[in-house]
TrEMBL record:
<dbReference type="InterPro" id="IPR038084">
    <property type="entry name" value="PduO/GlcC-like_sf"/>
</dbReference>
<dbReference type="InterPro" id="IPR005624">
    <property type="entry name" value="PduO/GlcC-like"/>
</dbReference>
<protein>
    <submittedName>
        <fullName>Heme-binding protein</fullName>
    </submittedName>
</protein>
<dbReference type="InterPro" id="IPR052517">
    <property type="entry name" value="GlcG_carb_metab_protein"/>
</dbReference>
<dbReference type="Pfam" id="PF03928">
    <property type="entry name" value="HbpS-like"/>
</dbReference>
Length: 136
């Protein structure tokens, strides 16, 4: 089983930065390992400071629950099964889109979280970043 290593994390972040530069939106990108520990982080020049913790939280949440945060957000709406989950784990759970598990086969071995743009912008950056690992 492969585990995300520092070099993998740099590849993931570099791919995210390349996509963020392509679309012209500075962003924050976080990569966590299989245990949910922060492995790498990048804050692009002019990226929102308020999005730093959000990007890290999205990556952690994607790994903690092994699900894209976009899917978790739907389950966390009032009346849904996981309503209130954002208040769990010391309010560390992020229920915004753009936290994505990174898998090897069916096994989650880490995650990436992106924050700093619109949902669509962040999602494109997160997808590019996650796909870089699959190619790596």
């Amino acid at each position: 089983m492969h585990a995300i290593q520092t070099l993998d994390a740099r590849t993931i972040i570099d791919a995210g930065i390349a996509e963020a530069e392509r679309i012209g939106n500075p962003t924050n990108i976080a990569v966590v390992d299989a245990s949910g520990c922060l492995l790498a982080f990048a804050r692009m020049d002019d990226a929102w400071r308020g999005s730093v913790d959000i990007a890290i939280g999205k990556a952690w949440t994607a790994r903690a629950f092994d699900v894209e945060t976009k899917a978790l957000a739907k389950l966390a709406q009032p009346g849904a099964d996981l309503y209130g989950i954002h208040a769990s784990n010391g309010a560390k759970v992020m229920i915004f889109a753009c936290g994505m598990p990174i898998k090897e086969g069916e096994t989650v071995i880490g995650a990436v979280g992106v924050s700093g743009g619109t949902g669509k912008q962040d999602e494109g950056v997160a997808e590019a970043a996650a796909q870089a690992f699959a190619r790596g």
